[in-house]
Write a structure and sequence with these properties.
The complex is a heterodimer.
Chain A (H helix, E strand, L loop, with lengths): L1 H6 L4 H32 L11 H33 L4 H26 L17 H31 L7 H32 L8 H34 L7 H14 L16 H13 L1 H21 L7 H5 L5 H24 L1 H7 L3 H31 L5 H30 L15 H37 L26 H25 L12
Helix pairs in contact in A: 2-3, 2-4, 2-16, 3-4, 3-5, 3-6, 3-14, 4-5, 5-6, 6-7, 6-8, 7-10, 7-12, 7-14, 8-10, 8-17, 12-14, 12-15, 14-15, 14-16, 15-16
Chain B lengths: L4 H26 L27 E4 L7 E8 L2 E3 L3 E4 L3 E8 L4 E5 L5 E4 L5 E6 L4 E6 L12 E7 L1
Parallel strand pairs in B: 2-5, 4-10
Antiparallel strand pairs in B: 1-2, 2-3, 5-8, 6-7, 6-9, 9-10
Classes of the chains: A mainly alpha, B alpha+beta.
């Protein structure tokens, strides 16, 4: 019954839990965004940081706050609301678990941030050994991860409760997706947890003298690639389930949506070597096997693209659109809840193509660790994912705070998205182009002793500063909208849109809910992709490395 | 599970494209020999200066191998040794490199030489320098405060 569906509200106690996550997420966006602006200005060569602040310290703050803090807090806040809305209000126990998760993550963030600000952890957000940060930095990151597990367990508890009360039925789609993402996250963070707990933390405390660098990098990238899918899947949740409702259409296929999420669970983890293609110590045959698995994870994205456009077209035709592309005009282009994520979706087309290039080992040799890569993930994460997160915020924040998205704020949101698009076109575009010429990523301004090649890079760096400045205007706009929706917008009811399947759709096969089967296959694939190379690494390991502080 | 006919066509097209891409990469890597740098040799990072070939960084002519020269680089924060090297045009060169401290990159801008240098491991890549000119070598993995100052130069001359 759509009328009841559209009026279901997230319980106010769960809403508070979600909002707590969003306050931290948007604070991280504000500070991290400012750091991004500073980086592009420094790298243009026209600006220097005042007061002896280091470029790489600023870069560490930017990466940790936007790559780890903004994303994890936003995703957990969104998933709490999504589960509470579709699988029912958290029990007191689940909510308490959620709050414990939130505070553990927040404590971890404060610990890591303090070390970075004191310049004790200028190791960037990838913290590659043998750069050795202060142990409090590593412990803080551990708390962020463990807190996110506790947060995720709260969501699984509420989903399990729904399943117990509704035996033999497939769980609500949005909750199912949130649980897949949580399971994906728990499986992949085991890698980084092992790296930190068994290697970096005891090493920084002086309990062990040396670490195996290649093992630590392999554990990191076992985590690092599924990390990007952990960012992407909440965006896909909104695309699959929320957008159809916003445009007045139906979910194209509940079963295929679930299948694509299961494929992400299977294929996004055993693929970390495609980040390590140019590294010594790993056999090229195993690199190629993981490249094949990487390409398999493209399939669910192709399915998603099809489902999106099928939804758009059928919604348009149901409203009487004629001709091949008449449905395009029927889409609600003036509704920020649709248009903002749509720009994100469109950005995923070049972003995905770039990803295929990066994973192809010969082409990777041209772009590896050049600023092309930075350009790439500013399209995937910083455009597709982040614009979808903004689009979610425009209905979710007022829904949770009991307010309304006004016409004025809706308009500002549309302007924000176009400002973002233009800024990113400048910044990411020039990063891609400069990367093809060989300019390295993660580097302060340098003329490289007057080298001719480096001189050719500088105009692109100026274009990045222009783009970065436009993007910072975008950050200011989103913060204005966030603060408005959280504290000042008029009281009212904003819908939490949850799409429904077309009436003639067939029932969802229950095999898609067979968690033992899918988690089992996921583990088998991981063991297949990693066991032999890992044994090789340990058997042929060189003497480990002592810690260095080169900043 | 029902799948729309157009979606089947779309996915078959997508899968076919992926198979073509993967075959191209695979054939290029394992038949034509364009594998990514994946040397399995190890070295004690604290004894790099005493270990051959790193005890003599620079360009060396070699005989009886598939390549004409070996170009040895030693990286440390924030410099490469040698800081500049001249390579004869058309020479087939095996670049051999390692690091004495943290992880560095060795990227020769404008070429396909791009590899990670990790403590304890030797990185190698064989290539032919068939275009004259000056090539900038940059460190493309963050290694500390002086990361952006870490560079070297290859001059390819007739």
């Amino acid at each position: 019954m759509p009328s009841i569906n559209s009026t279901i509200k997230v319980d106010s106690r769960d809403a508070k839990l979600s909002m707590a996550h969003f306050y931290v997420a948007f604070a991280a966006l504000a500070i991290g965004g400012l750091m991004g602006l500073l980086q592009t200005l420094v790298r243009s060569g026209k600006f220097e940081l005042p007061g002896g602040i280091g470029y790489y310290q600023v870069l560490t703050v930017h990466g940790v706050l936007l790559g780890l803090v903004l994303t994890t807090f936003f995703i957990m806040g969104f998933q709490h609301a999504a589960v509470s809305r579709t699988a029912g209000t958290h029990s007191d126990k689940a909510r308490l678990t959620g709050w414990i998760g939130f505070w553990v993550m927040t404590l971890g963030t404060v610990m890591a941030a303090a070390m970075v600000l004191m310049n004790k952890a200028t190791v960037l957000y990838t913290f590659y050994a043998p750069l050795q940060a202060h142990w409090i930095f590593y412990l803080g990151l551990t708390f962020v991860v463990v807190g996110s597990w506790i947060d995720g367990i709260a969501q699984i508890m509420t989903y399990a409760k729904w399943k117990k009360n509704n035996p033999g039925k497939p769980g609500p789609l949005l909750s199912f997706m949130a649980v897949i993402n949580t399971v994906l996250w728990i499986i992949c963070t085991i890698g980084v947890a092992a790296e930190v707990l068994f290697q970096l933390l005891p090493w920084s405390l002086g309990l062990i003298d040396r670490v195996d660098v290649l093992v630590s990098r392999t554990l990191f990238w076992y985590f690092g690639h599924p990390l990007v899918y952990f960012w992407l899947l909440p965006a896909y949740m909104a695309w699959y389930v929320v957008i159809p409702k916003v445009i007045g259409g139906k979910i194209f296929s509940d079963s295929l949506a679930r299948l694509s999420f299961i494929l992400f669970l299977l294929f996004s983890i055993p693929v970390g070597f495609h980040h390590q293609l140019t590294e010594p110590g790993i056999d090229p045959a195993w690199k190629f096997i993981q490249v094949i698995l990487t390409f398999l994870v493209i399939i669910p994205s192709l399915m998603t693209a099809f489902a999106m456009f099928a939804t758009f077209e059928s919604a348009g035709r149901a409203k009487g659109a004629k001709g091949m592309f008449g449905w395009v005009k029927k889409l609600p282009w003036n509704d920020a809840r649709f248009t903002v994520p749509f720009i994100g979706m469109a950005a995923f087309i070049p972003a995905g193509a770039g990803g295929i290039i990066n994973a192809s080992n010969q082409m990777d040799q041209v772009v590896h660790n050049t600023i092309w890569i930075t350009g790439h993930f500013h399209l995937t994460l910083a455009t597709s994912v982040v614009l979808t997160f903004f689009g979610i915020s425009y209905w979710l924040i007022p829904h949770l705070t009991g307010r309304k998205l006004t016409k004025k704020m809706n308009k500002l949101a549309l302007i924000q998205a176009w400002v973002w698009f233009i800024g990113m076109a400048f910044m990411s575009g020039s990063m891609h182009a400069e990367g093809l010429l060989g300019a390295p990523r993660r580097s302060a301004f340098s003329t490289y002793m007057g080298a001719k090649q480096a001189a050719e890079w500088i105009p692109y760096q100026i274009a990045q500063a222009v783009g970065g400045t436009i993007l910072f205007i975008g950050i200011i706009l989103i913060l204005i909208i966030f603060i408005n929706l959280a504290f000042f917008a008029p009281k009212g009811e904003e819908e939490f849109p949850v799409g429904e399947q077309a009436e003639n759709a067939e029932a969802t096969p229950m095999v898609l809910e067979n968690w033992k089967l899918w988690i089992g296959i996921s583990i088998v694939l991981i063991l297949f992709a990693y066991t032999i190379p890992f044994i090789d690494m340990i058997q042929n390991a060189p003497i480990g490395s002592k810690g260095f502080k080169t900043w | 599970m029902h799948m729309h006919k157009l979606e089947k066509i779309w996915l078959i097209f997508g899968l076919a494209a992926l198979i073509v891409f993967l075959s191209t990469i695979g054939v290029s890597a394992f038949y034509l020999g364009n594998k990514p740098p994946s040397c399995l040799t190890t070295v004690d990072p604290e004894k790099v200066d005493q270990t051959a070939p790193f005890n003599k960084p620079g360009l060396h002519k070699v005989e009886g191998k598939d390549w004409d020269y070996e170009l040895v680089f030693v990286a440390q924060a924030f410099a490469y040794t040698p800081t500049q090297v001249t390579v004869p045009l058309g020479a087939k060169v095996k670049v051999i490199a390692t690091t004495k401290d943290v992880v560095h990159g060795l990227e020769v801008a404008g070429t396909n030489i791009n590899m990670m240098l990790e403590p304890g491991y030797v990185s190698e890549y064989t290539t032919t320098f068939d275009k004259e000119g000056e090539y900038l070598i940059v460190c493309n993995e963050y290694c500390g405060t002086g990361h952006h100052l870490m560079s070297s130069k290859i001059e390819v001359k007739k």
